[in-house]
Amino acid sequence: MYYISELIGKTVTDVDGRKIGSIKDLLAAHYEKMPYPKIVALDIAQRRRSTLVAMSDVAVLIAPAIPLKKRLEDIKPYQPKPDEIYLVRDVLDKQIIDTNGVRVVRVNDLELTRVEDSIYIANVDVGSLGLLRRLGLSGITRKLAKRYPSGMISWGDVELIAGDQPIRLKVPGEKITELHPADLAEILSDLSRPDGSKLLEKLDVKTLAETLEEVEPDFQASLIEQMSNERVADVLEEMAPDEAADLLAELPEDRSAELLKLMEDEDAEDVRKLLRYEEDTAGGLMNTEFISVPAEMTSDQVIQVLRKNAEEAETMYYIYVTDKEGHLVGVFSLRDLVLAQPGTPVSEFMEKRVVTVNLKDSQEDCAQVISKYNLIAVPVVDDEKRIQGIVAADDALDHIIPTAWKKRLPRFYH
Prior knowledge:
Blueprint: E1 2-3, E2 11-13, E3 19-31, E4 34-45, E5 50-54, E6 66-67, E7 85-86, H1 87-90, E8 95-98, E9 103-106, E10 109-115, E11 118-125, H2 128-134, H3 138-144, E12 152-154, E13 158-160, H4 174-177, H5 181-190, H6 193-200, H7 205-212, H8 217-223, H9 229-238, H10 241-250, H11 253-262, H12 265-275, H13 282-285, E14 292-293, H14 299-309, E15 318-322, E16 328-333, H15 334-339, H16 346-349, E17 357-358, H17 363-373, E18 377-381, E19 387-392, H18 393-396, H19 403-406
Parallel strand pairs: 2-6, 14-15, 17-18
Antiparallel strand pairs: 1-10, 2-3, 3-4, 3-7, 4-5, 8-9, 8-13, 10-11, 11-12, 15-16, 18-19
Helix pairs in contact: 2-3, 5-7, 7-9, 8-10, 9-11, 10-12
């Protein structure tokens, strides 16, 4: 096993054995047929300058002193390509996303491997042994290797996060988009806000919306600060109306107004409706995406409605029954629907005693009702008992359970 840390600072000699400098950095390139980057050049530090030397001009890389095949003045300097990586400058000490372990980690060292006559980067070392090796304590790390986990991650399982220097490594973006939104949100919380914003640029609109819903509104606002209004408007349309309203409330009024203009009329109206209420009231907490049906509808017809509108509903566990004016007259659960005989009118299996909260009721009132009646969500009605939305249990309990914990509650009612 060879490591970058053991090469940095090593003496480089020419073909006559004269010292010409020391290794400052190594340059690596990706090739289509190989999943791992290949070392293509050395950056040799001299007194007043540094010179790039191609690996084809290096006699041996793994040696006490690294000899070149020619005199330095006879070597044509290597010309780096735009997509090649300076390993010390662009990788060591940088943050990476471990897409297998779903975490943000720091690169402490890089493990090299030899394949025929070439040297490749095989693994990223994010463990404590890599730090000791960087301090020049390679002998100690060998003794401790059996006691401590290696901290190695395969190069193919990480994705670099852009820092001050542009990333020249082409990595498969689908690795990030395949992660669960909750995992992406956890990664975002470990990154600096500029790095978090760069990560979000890789996500499609739907995944971006789902990820933002997993973090606090003030953090959401900072993450989208540099995004174009057009992209943010598309994201807001994909978010649940209550989540979109929370985010808009964190933005400056002029930008919030501009985003509402860019949104589809129906989506914008749902959000405007929520923004009329104080954020700690049932009206401010509610989601306007729910399913309601008339009492005359049969169980078969309800199933067809659910199939058609499933993606638009916050929860399908409860189906609400309304009259022609929108007054709430009943409720039933999916269990009730499944157990009902085909063709049975909703009026025969719905629960007529519906527990509700008013638009002006406090968040604490909502939490108490949900807790008392063991509900997954509670319907919100106006003074005329017309249903306006629903407050989900996790939103109602937000003031009791810290949001960081609330976000981890299983959303089994989706």
